[in-house]
Specification:
It contains seven helices and no strands. By secondary structure, it is mostly helical. It has two domains: 116 residues, no CATH class; 61 residues. The longest helix has 35 residues. The radius of gyration is 22 Å and the shape is extended. The two termini are 17 Å apart.
């Protein structure tokens, strides 16, 4: 039971860090994409508008990614209905990345204003603590995997692939016996 509990919490930590990684990766990508759009006056007007908003109306801006991504998702469902699985999957994935990236970008742009809301600040501080906890759960596992890969020769080593794989198998068996 204890082992299952450990697996559950470690899996939860890995998922949390994966979403966090997506967040950190997509916000700069959306920002870079926005730089490519040649509508400087429109972009400046949007930024000025967001700056003038009070903290609570700023929360309403987070409906924009939903409004932007849902019609695209409907298109993906239509593609699924037409049995165009790859196109439907790609369209759905695009909609999710767009939504997630826009939320990350908007949060980065409005973070200080949102943190002036007391309950939002507490929620954000909880998120930071969970992020630290997730790293505490996953970092020792990452270190052990890296050490096993170095010992097996996959990182900086020599020898055939099969010899490395056998060594890695032995290391894994040694770890499961402990």
């Amino acid at each position: 039971m204890r082992r299952l509990k450990r697996i559950f919490w470690t899996t939860l930590a890995v998922l949390f860090l994966a979403v966090s990684w997506l967040w950190d990766t997509l916000a700069p990508l959306i920002r870079a994409f926005l730089v490519l759009i040649p509508l400087e006056r429109v972009k400046r007007a949007v930024i000025d508008f967001m700056d003038r908003l009070a903290p609570y109306p700023t929360l309403a801006i987070f409906l924009i990614p939903l409004v932007a991504s849902e019609p695209i998702k409907l298109g993906s469902f239509w593609l699924f209905a037409q049995k165009q699985w790859f196109a439907g999957s790609a369209t759905f994935l695009f909609a999710e990345i767009l939504r997630f990236g826009l939320v990350a970008f908007l949060f980065t742009a409005c973070k200080d204003k949102l943190l002036s809301i007391p309950w939002f600040k507490k929620l954000y501080e909880l998120f930071v603590r969970v992020h630290e906890w997730a790293h505490e759960q996953v970092d020792p596992i990452k270190k052990a995997i890296r050490e096993a890969l170095v010992e097996a020769g996959f990182i900086g080593g020599q020898g055939s692939f099969w010899r490395r794989l056998r060594t890695l198998w032995r290391i894994a068996r040694r770890g499961s016996a402990a």
